[in-house]
Each structure stands twice: as structure tokens, then as C-alpha cells.
Amino acid sequence: MGEVINVTEKKTFIKWFLEHYSLQNREAEWLLQYLASNDAVLEKVHFIDNFRNLPKTILMSTKCVQMTPFKFYKNKRVTSDVEKAFLDIHNNSDEDIYIGLFFKDRNTSPEYASVLEQNPLDDPREVTDALISLEAEMMLDYSIREYQREHVMKAIDQALDNRDQGRFRNLVDELRKIEELG
Helix or strand or coil: residue 101? Predict the structure, then answer.
């Protein structure tokens, strides 16, 4: 994922896919065949897993899964009419088309993985920022626990020096709770 997939690879995948799977919507199969037969349009086709926030998306499902058979999304409009999708693709051949296919074993299919691309609107910095934030939070939690542990250890020493058994027991229980969290 992340690299540009060429037209030949996309054609090979579509041919393989149509030989091995039957789409729930027969017209959707014809649409895939049309895409495979038109290099200029196929150049604009991108197979994706995450179709969030994309301007033009087609979702298709095979007979072996329980998903909606066909959906075409364009600029927040949705239709299940394959003909409308075809006309839009035919009339706007310069626009990128993002296709999500739902079929049995898609997560383990090397054929599908070979044409899968990243959603261009996914920002890798968001993932990195989230990881940094999580790491900082974990470090802060660790620091707070260590501070609490040190504080309780000093209090235990003081309780022992004062021979205060009740306070000693309470502080040992508190220390156990702190260490259980760590």
C-alpha cells in the first residue's frame, strides 16, 4: 500500500476477481468490466479499504458476504443505481474513483492486497500525533505512580521509626494498590 498501482495490475486484479467471485448486483459486474476495458478510466480507479471522506466512492459486495450489493457515493449523495454511477464515470473520466470491494477472505487475499491503496485523505501525521500523545500519557502515568510510590515508601519508613503499626499497615496496603496499577 502507498505506491501507485499501474493499469495492468488493476486489469489483472479485476479479471481475477470476476473469475473467482460473483457480485450481488449483475450490473456492478458489467461496470467492473467496463472499467477494466478503459485504460484512461482505469488509471483513475483506486481500490481502497478506508473510504471515509472521499469525493467519489463505489462499494460493491459479492454474493458470499452480507453487505449492501452496490452503493455509489459522490459529494455526499448516495445511490444504488449502477447506471447513474456508470454515467458519472463516463462523463467525468478525469475524476478519481475509489472502489471498496467486499468479499470473503478479502483481508487475506494477496490479489486484493496487491492493488490496495491508502485513502489519500488519511493523514499519517494524525496517527503519529496520536501515538506520541499516548506515549506521553503513559509516561505521565508512570511518573505519577513513581512519585506516589516514593511518597508512600518515605511514609512507611517514618511509620516504622515511630512504631505506628496501624499507619504502617495502611501505608503497605496503599503501596500494594499503587504497584498493582503499575
Answer: strand
